[in-house]
């Protein structure tokens, strides 16, 4: 039985991935700072990856390690997390390191988080371990949360959603990414594999209106990630479309 250790298991992608791995018959060890409920084929370990030696005693020879843990709001954190995982996986003799990354990183280097993700990719690539790197565009779930955070109550007007001007995304459902990630985790290491994206490219007003935001205002919001997305930089030039459209996903919410 394949033993799969998943970092960042309580996140959006982790929650979608765990049941798929269980259904495949893998023995799953889920790592998070707060342990979740155990289930057949699934055990949790409360681990803070930023702490030195956090993975000591967790990883075993022959493991598949799926590294999803990320800290987008803390500069340098993803590099430090990935370095810890790479070192621990190599020391334990893990058989396969799977890293989740972001499509179009080379065009998105204006944002510190994307610079960190690219540096983390290079750590995986230079680790000497058998690895697979999967890149995807932004998840529907992430875009939906952004819209929620960008929606403000305006007295006498009602909810107003501030949108980053000049931005088009091609988001996909986290579940679709999880399906591909599950399949890759249980196959032989493949290096950098084909990127994934959603079925359609939409600008932010289109994304907002599909989620019921009627009052929107597009502005050049001074946020690094929004600046990095401008000019179509977040829309991959060569990626495989998968999963439900934004409208189909929204209808199910």
Overview of the molecule:
- With 253 residues, the protein is of the alpha/beta class.
- The chain has one domain (3-251): Rossmann fold (3-Layer(aba) Sandwich), CATH 3.40.50.720.
- 33% of the residues lie in helices and 23% in strands.
- The chain contains 8 helices and 14 strands.
- The chain has a 7-stranded parallel beta sheet with strand order 3-2-1-4-5-6-10, with helices on both faces. A 3-stranded mixed beta sheet has the order 7-8-13. A two-stranded antiparallel ribbon has the order 9-12.
- Helix 2 (77-92) runs parallel beside helix 3 (112-125).
- The longest helix is centred in the middle third of the chain and has 16 residues, at 77-92.
- The relative contact order is 0.14.
- The mean pLDDT is 96.
Radius of gyration: 19 Å
Structural class: alpha/beta
CATH superfamily: NAD(P)-binding Rossmann-like Domain
**Are there runs of 5+ residues with pLDDT below 50, and where?**
none
Assembly context of the chains: single chain
Number of E-state strands = 14
Number of helices: 8
First-residue to last-residue Cα separation: 36 Å
**Topology-level CATH name:** Rossmann fold
Number of domain modules = 1
Strand percentage: 15-25%
CATH C-level name: Alpha Beta
Proportion of helical residues: 25-40%
Pfam families: NAD_binding_10
Domain NAD(P)-binding: 8-140
Protein name: SDR family oxidoreductase
InterPro entries: ComplexI_NDUFA9_subunit, NAD(P)-bd_dom, NAD(P)-bd_dom_sf
């Amino acid at each position: 039985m394949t033993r799969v250790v998943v970092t960042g298991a309580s996140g959006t992608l982790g929650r979608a991935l765990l049941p798929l791995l269980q259904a495949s018959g893998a023995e799953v060890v889920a790592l998070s700072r707060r342990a979740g409920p155990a289930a057949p084929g699934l055990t949790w370990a409360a681990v803070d990856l930023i702490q030195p030696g956090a993975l000591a005693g967790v990883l075993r020879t022959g493991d598949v390690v799926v590294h999803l843990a990320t800290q987008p709001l803390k500069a340098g954190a993803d590099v430090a997390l990935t370095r810890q995982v790479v070192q621990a996986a190599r020391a334990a003799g893990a058989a396969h390191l799977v890293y989740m990354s972001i499509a179009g990183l080379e065009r998105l280097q204006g944002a510190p988080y994307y610079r960190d993700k690219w540096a983390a990719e290079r750590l995986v690539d230079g680790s000497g371990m058998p690895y697979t790197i999967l890149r995807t565009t932004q998840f529907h779930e992430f875009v939906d949360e952004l819209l929620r955070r960008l929606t403000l109550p305006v007295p006498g007007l009602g909810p107003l959603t501030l949108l980053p001007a000049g931005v088009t995304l091609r988001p996909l459902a986290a579940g679709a990414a999880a399906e591909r990630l599950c399949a890759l985790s249980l196959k032989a290491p493949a290096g950098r594999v084909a990127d994934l994206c959603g079925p359609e490219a939409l600008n932010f007003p289109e994304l907002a209106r599909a989620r019921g935001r009627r009052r929107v205002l597009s502005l050049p919001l001074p946020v690094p990630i929004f600046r990095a997305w401008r000019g179509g930089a977040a829309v991959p030039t060569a990626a495989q479309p998968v999963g439900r459209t934004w409208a189909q996903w929204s209808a199910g919410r």
